[in-house]
Design brief:
The protein has 1 helix and no strands. It is mostly helical and 59 residues long.
Amino acid sequence: MPSLIAQAAAPSVGALLLEHVGAHGTLATLVGLALLNVGLACSLGWLIFRRRTVQVQMQ
């Protein structure tokens, strides 16, 4: 359900960003959010890899 709310709000938030900060500001915001997403995905992958490595060493 939260993802549906985010999908419904995205066009309105995008329009507000364009109105207040312009095209370059909107692009910078989207790039920042994309980099944050990549960082979080890499962190999650590292944590999963680390947990599997610890489990293999314990066996």
